């Protein structure tokens, strides 16, 4: 009897021409409209599957996979994977992959765009003009802060943090960073950044950018206490995950002049943005577009397709998906699981 083809599901509209590569080996169900799934809907979708291509909007853990005995692989089309309960998935033998590297430079570009827009009050200036308030040119209107010659703090010094540091060098900025582990001396020299303790980073930064993974340890790391240590003239940029910042504490600091501005691409309750943030002029807000260039979003889907096929045992990397997060899923793998070889774990680097 012929072996049945794996069943896979693509949870959101991606790029059909890339997703179609899955059809060479799998039966594929795609999704035509952007969809928000409840836990019950996800459980129902996953139940008959061998694998799925998912995005950061799908939150999947023990409950969602409880009825999915065949599930072997989830390819997350994102570098961050706080939407997934990795321990539960590993215990069930489900290989999880992400999309590192291909989005590094594009996301660093967006980080820099927010740094510049926040420091120079670009969205506030545009609103001022569009609303017809530019009655006379004034020497002291919309004064901002310089990036050149200032101190940039980077919290989280993985791939994207390092790419931001390299850009900062071109702007003549002094770059400080804090990270769970210090970079090797030669990498520090290469990116031109100096390691400092967390509190020193907060106190010394003229502009602080958050690029660290969202974990229980980083939940609300930037809260009232951390914000109080920052300069009142400083700006804060978050391109990591909204939950790293206590948004109410941030809004309060911004409203009362204890912080000059913020550039936010991510929000704790996204796509809902707190009214306290929306009400402020000194915040630049973008709808989680860090990696959203056409070329990069396509590269992410291509990598995820490659990872999914490899995790299901197909293609040149069959059994060794290049961006496997949970090598321990192999130990727990169900009989017939396709993950076989050793793979570098890149879980903590953004
Ligand atoms: C986007 O936020 C990602 O994690 O890729």
From TrEMBL:
Keywords: NAD, Oxidoreductase. InterPro entries: D-isomer_2-hydroxyacid_DH, D-isomer_2_OHA_DH_cat_dom, D-isomer_DH_CS1, D-isomer_DH_NAD-bd, NAD(P)-bd_dom_sf. It comes from the Bacteria. The keyword Oxidoreductase applies. Residues 112-290 form the D-isomer specific 2-hydroxyacid dehydrogenase NAD-binding domain. Gene3D superfamilies: NAD(P)-binding Rossmann-like Domain. Residues 13-312 form the D-isomer specific 2-hydroxyacid dehydrogenase catalytic domain. Pfam families: 2-Hacid_dh, 2-Hacid_dh_C. PANTHER family: 2-HYDROXYACID DEHYDROGENASE-RELATED (PTHR10996), GLYOXYLATE_HYDROXYPYRUVATE REDUCTASE B (PTHR10996:SF283). Belongs to the D-isomer specific 2-hydroxyacid dehydrogenase family. This is D-glycerate dehydrogenase.
């Amino acid at each position: 009897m012929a072996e049945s083809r794996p069943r896979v599901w693509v949870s959101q509209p991606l790029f059909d021409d890339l997703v179609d590569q899955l059809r060479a080996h799998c039966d594929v169900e795609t999704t035509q409209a952007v969809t928000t799934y409840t836990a019950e809907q996800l459980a129902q979708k996953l139940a008959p599957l061998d694998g799925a291509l998912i995005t950061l909007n799908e939150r999947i853990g023990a409950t969602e996979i409880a009825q999915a005995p065949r599930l072997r692989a989830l390819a997350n089309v994102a570098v961050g994977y706080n939407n997934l309960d990795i321990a539960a998935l590993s215990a069930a033998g489900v290989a999880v992959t992400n999309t590192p590297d291909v989005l590094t430079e594009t996301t660093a570009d967006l980080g820099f765009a927010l740094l510049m827009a926040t420091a120079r009050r670009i969205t506030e200036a545009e609103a001022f003009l569009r609303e017809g308030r530019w009655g006379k040119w004034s020497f002291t209107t919309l004064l901002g802060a310089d990036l050149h010659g200032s101190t940039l703090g980077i919290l989280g010094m993985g791939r994207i943090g390092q790419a931001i540091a390299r850009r900062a060098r071109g702007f003549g900025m002094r770059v400080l960073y804090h990270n769970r582990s210090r970079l090797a001396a030669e990498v520090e020299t290469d990116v031109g950044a100096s390691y400092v303790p967390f509190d020193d980073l907060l106190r010394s930064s003229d502009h602080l950018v958050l690029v660290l993974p969202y974990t229980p340890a980083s939940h609300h790391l930037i809260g009232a206490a951390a914000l109080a240590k920052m300069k009142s003239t400083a700006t804060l940029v978050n391109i990591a995950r909204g939950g790293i910042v206590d948004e109410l504490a941030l809004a309060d600091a911004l409203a009362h002049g204890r912080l000059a501005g913020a550039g936010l691409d991510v929000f704790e309750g996204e796509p809902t943005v707190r009214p306290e943030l929306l009400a402020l002029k000194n915040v630049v807000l973008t709808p989680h577009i860090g990696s959203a260039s056409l070329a990069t979003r396509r590269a992410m889907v291509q990598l995820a397709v490659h990872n999914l096929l490899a995790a299901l045992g197909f293609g040149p990397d069959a059994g060794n998906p290049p961006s496997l997060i949970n090598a321990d899923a192999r130990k727990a793998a169900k009989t017939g699981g396709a993950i076989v070889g050793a793979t570098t774990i890149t879980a903590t680097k953004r």
